[in-house]
Amino acid sequence: MLKKAIETRDNNLLHEFFPSELMDYFNITQYQTLCSVQNKSEYWLIDFEERNDLPVGYSASDYESKGFMAGKLIQDFPLRGKAVFLRIKKRRWRHKQSGVIIKRDFSFIADGSKFTKELLDFLKDASGYTPRYDQQHSQLFPG
User: Fold this and answer.
1) Residue 139 and residue 10: Cα distance in Å, rounded?
2) How many domains does one find in the chain?
């Protein structure tokens, strides 16, 4: 297993492989090259975390970051013949007085964008979303 922290040059290159809508709101925190024992093939696991930037219309003096919601493991389009899995964590913020939790609304992303349906459904919190890969590859997503 090759596990790498993201350096600036790596991050710049990886930005070229993913839709700008994703890169506008998420940072790539690390990536790993892994090998499946079952079929002896390599694949990439790339970790994304939503940036700590409040949605438009909310004041930083009124809200604080409360970490992340439960993340999802989503299979994306293959790169260079290798499967690609994205571990994505969406952020949540809490109102300091009322305790109300908010999260970013990604419904602005067009259905015709360069996202897989599964990734698009996750970002938009579509009610019909079923995590196909979370159970199958649970060892990749502890907690």
Assistant:
1) 25
2) 1
Q: What are the backbone angles phi and psi of residue 37, rounded to the nearest 5°?
A: -70, -35
pTM: 0.71
3-state DSSP assignment of residue 132: helix
Structural domain boundaries, residue 47: 2-140
What 3-state DSSP class applies to 69?
A: coil
pLDDT digits (tens, 9 = 90+) for 64-91: 999 998 888 888 888 888 888 889 899 9
d(CA 19, CA 62): 31
**Residue 53 contacts residue 75 (beta carbons within 8 Å):** no
Helix, strand or coil for residue 34?
A: strand
Q: Distance of alpha carbon 48 from its chain centroid, rounded?
A: 4
Task: List, for residues 90-128, the tens digit of each pLDDT value.
Answer: 999 999 999 999 998 776 555 555 566 666 776 666 544
